[in-house]
User: Fold these one by one.
Assistant:
Number 1:
Amino acid sequence: MAEIKQLYTLQTDEDFSRLSFPLNSREIRQLEHQILENGCTTPIRVWNSYIVMDFEVYEICHKHKIPFSIVKLPLKERIEVIAYVCQMQIKERKMTEAMWRYLVGKRYDCERLLGKHTVAKGTASKKRGRPSLNNFHYDSSKVGTRQRLGEEYHISETTVFKYGFFMQRIDELYKYVPELATHIQIGKIRMSQEHLAELVKMTPQKLKELSGLILGADGKCKSYTMVREILDEYVPLNTVAKTDNEPQLQIKNTPDYDPDLEISSLALTIPSWIRVINRTQKAVHNQDTSTEKRNTLIGQLLNLQSAVNDLLSIVKEML
């Protein structure tokens, strides 16, 4: 239940503010105009004395001394709040794909740990379902968590797992190069998962040097092409040096390596998939087809869609 309107003074916390995708200047102006015209009509969500969402609303209200109401989240643990905020941000805000991946990965990580804690306490629910403010039902296994989130967001459980790694690497960068981490998290700087994995292995000093090269003295990130050139020079991939003591294997009559082999093979195969899908569309309209098989098809099509989206994203990054 929302509290009475007044000019509350709330605290901010990096863990919560990091989960909020920032509005651009135009969106902030529109929000400010709306609040000046109509007052603050939406309660600001808080946990204890911390603001967890609606940061821009809070700043605008304090700037113009406009009273607002708050609603207190009835959650016990910080990790529950983080999971809830991730869920609400994805539901309520438009954002870049990078931010979306981060929030899905963060929610998975939090709910995986919460499920583990409830099992340890002997209070894990046998039900599966999305958590709510009033009655949390966390899965007893991390596989169950991935499956549930995959169903909710129409991606494969493997993709949920990958997003968890993406989030962990971003959070690791926040320890030493928070500005660079923010730019990657919200999608202003794009890089491959391979480069990101190598970044977290670097020393703090090297990370800071690399961040300075990418962001520059003015803090503005360079173009994607320039970032890729910097990464290729300072974070080379597949350059594992061999020691003098390592045996050098020699295989005779080995065909030359073709880096385009897998891509060419897939490109040749896809047209046949399209023909089969087109034929299947006619069969789907046939009422004699079973509900069980249609549901199976839906599941496999969603898995295919997720795999296609992942590959398409990677290929676009390399252009």
Number 2:
Amino acid sequence: MSSSVVVTGGGRGVGRAIVERLLAQDDGPVVVMERDRATLDWAGDQITGGRLVPVIGDAADERIAARAVEAAGTLRGWVNNAAVFPTGWLHEMPAREAGALIARNVEPVVTGCRAAIGAFLAAGTGGSIVNISSHQAQRPVRGAFAYATAKAAIEGLTRALAVDYGPQGVRVNALALGSISTDRSDAHVAALDPAAREAFDREIRLLQPLGRMGRTDEVAEAAAFLLSAHASFINGAILPVDGGRSAVGRDPEEL
């Protein structure tokens, strides 16, 4: 019997690359949770053929997550990818607003983990959860406290759930991404003037020892590995997919 994987935010960017990688495995349907069905226009043939099953709605909504579980049938994996990138400064907003900004990235992951774990326990089969985190969980950039805080919380949640549910065969891991080239980042870079573009490229070379942005397909390969039986003894891990960004120490004398 074929089994399914649920991917939240699977319509574009990293999420889409993960979905396409899973579809290429031909192991079973991929259920994609997205807020906007138009983001799945690229997948028309896959939807018609039943290989991709769209579930439209907010990934933080437990009712939508329950629909995804139902659509998945036999669930083997869940990827919590849906995220937003709120910016702002704590001193400029009420504490309640700051907490809400953090929650925008934490709640979909909590909801997804709860839905997946419930399905795994009910089936008695175990399964794999992959949470998408960021280098900012450990090394925030200025003006993004809510995003960095949320990603740090997601990494803590990953470890805690790995400990809680490992005895039931549930593996929970995370990918901590560096700067990855997506349509959004490509548009940003394309809009820069030549001097700013050169400064951006130089900063990437300094930050990521491989000297370039990561590719979405490279993230997808890592996610597919963690979902697979090849990673059967990996649990509670935070795997950097960052070209060495988490290892490098910036040298002020480097030119």
Number 3:
Amino acid sequence: MTARKPKFRRRAEARPEEVLDAALDLFIERGFEATRVDDIANRAGISKGAVYLYFQSKRAILEGLIQRAVSPIAENVAGLGTSFEGDPRHLLSMVLKMVGQQLADPHTFKIPKLVLREAIIDPEIAETYRKAVLDKVIPVMVALIRKGIADGYLRPVDPELTVRSIVGPIMLHLMMSEVFGLQPSEGLAMDRLVDNHLDILINGVSAPRGQAS
């Protein structure tokens, strides 16, 4: 006799994702502080107790959102940077285009959008994002720039400040859009921003021709 599959098994497995989806929509609509766990439970169509089966707190839900949407991008970038050999300009170009494509996805973009809006009010949100994303990526990028200088591909620039110069325009672009409501005429246009940024960046940090070893 064939054993019966547990009733509602698929639904139970889907619930953490439903909680995250409901929380993200509410955090964007109302803000992190103004959203209650009861609100998230109602939006997800489950009880408040069921939410706590998957997430210990509202902040744990936020961490879950970051882990789901943005941490895989950070881990991928960190992995590429750690194992890369050769001209770092190629990797920088690939990474920025990849990040631009990911952030062009409205669902993924909701996370940095939320962080930018809420971090001013709640610094712990910025800390959560920093640990999950920036702390994984920044050291790898600094090491990549440093190696590119040593190998003669890049001019002798300050590696740490150069990484800030690489990341800064993208963060400022997002902040101008989401905090100040200033966008290019065609919308966020992440792809065009990245192409423009790469043109300025690569030409700015490249060593003179013939210098690379």
